[in-house]
Structure formats: structure tokens, C-alpha cells
Design brief:
Layout (H helix, E strand, L loop, with lengths): L13 H11 L13 E4 L2 E4 L12 E3 L8 H7 L3 E3 L12 E3 L1
Parallel strand pairs: 3-4, 4-5
Antiparallel strand pairs: 1-2
């Protein structure tokens, strides 16, 4: 949710736009961010969930590439990962969609 890697600033974060677009298409949303513990967006109050929660999601989207995340474990756990930050450079998996 943070604007950029390893900070808590959410101003102008593209993650907010991505979240709103997904919500408008009917997605059930959660997020994991070690720097943003909670947020309010478009009438929703959300709290950050542990990154292990990706195992229960249909899709995980990497919008901010925090160094605290275990990306190898994320690829193992998630059904599908959309990587918008090239955080998975060097990883090979048919579960990864790179934008």
C-alpha cells in the first residue's frame, strides 16, 4: 500500500488505484504491508494481514516491493502472482504474471 519500497507514506500510491479498480470489479480485497497497518479507502476499513494469507487468495498483486517480503515463499503459497514491480526478477513460475 505504501508509495514506494520500505516506507509508510501512502500519498499518491498506485496501490490505492489498483485496489479501487479491483473493488469496482467485485474483488474481495485484503492487503499485506509491514509499513501500513491499516487504511480507509472508498468506505472500507482494512487492516494489513500477514503475508502468509496469500495462500488463501485467488491472486496476489505486488504493487510495492518491500524488502521485508519473502518473495520465494509468496510464489510457493499463491495461486497467481501479478508482479508490477519486477520484484520476482529471476523467479520462474507459470504462476507469475509480469506487468
Amino acid at each position: 500500500m505504501a508509495y514506494k519500497r520500505d516506507i509508510a507514506d501512502m500519498r499518491e500510491s498506485p496501490a490505492l488505484d489498483v485496489m479501487l479498480l479491483l473493488k469496482r470489479r467485485g474483488a474481495v480485497l485484503t492487503y499485506s504491508d509491514p509499513y501500513v497497518s491499516g487504511l480507509r479507502v472508498d468506505g472500507m476499513d482494512l487492516e494489513s494481514v500477514p503475508e502468509e494469507s496469500a495462500a488463501a487468495a485467488d491472486c496476489a498483486v505486488i504493487v510495492t516491493d518491500h524488502s521485508a517480503f519473502d518473495y520465494q515463499a509468496l510464489v510457493r503459497r499463491a495461486c497467481l502472482v501479478v508482479d508490477t514491480r519486477n520484484a520476482l526478477k529471476g523467479f520462474n513460475s507459470n504462476k507469475i504474471v509480469r506487468l
